[in-house]
Amino acid sequence: MNSRLEFNEKLLILLVEMSNAGEHWLLDYCKRSDEEQERLFKAGKSKCDGKAIISYHQFGRAVDIYFQRAGMLTDPIMGWNHWHDEWDKVGGHKRIDWDLGHFEG
Q1: Tally of domains within the chain
Q2: Residue span of the structural domain in which 66 resides
């Protein structure tokens, strides 16, 4: 994927599929500032420091997707592997095993 617009179009396809499957998804960190990325790195929540190692979030080409049922965060009904396989089909980057809620392109 070469552009943020293309990423957004593919993300929309995935989110519609999730909704049609009965998933209740929430998006987080659609775009991060360099400072926020560095803060997350220092807190041990990212392997990208925002300077030497740049995150796709800083370009607006990554999101974190969470799922909820009954007001609680949970794993997706269809499972993480299913949604990452669907993301692969629309042209997203491969999953990051230590960060299953992360989808980038």
Answers
A1: 1
A2: 4-104
Residue pLDDT tens, the chain, 105 long: 468 789 999 999 999 999 999 999 999 988 899 999 999 999 998 999 999 999 999 999 999 999 999 999 999 999 999 999 999 999 999 898 889 999 999
Q: Where are the beta strands (DSSP E) in the chain?
A: 25-28, 62-69, 72-74, 102-104
User: CATH code at 38?
Assistant: 3.30.1380.10
Contacts of 54 (CB under 8 A, 6+ apart): 37, 48
The residues near 58 (Cβ < 8 Å, ≥ 6 apart) are 31, 32, 33, 34, 37, 50
CA 77, chain centre distance (Å)? 17
Rg (CA), the chain: 14
pLDDT of residue 2: 60
How many residues in total does the chain contain?
105
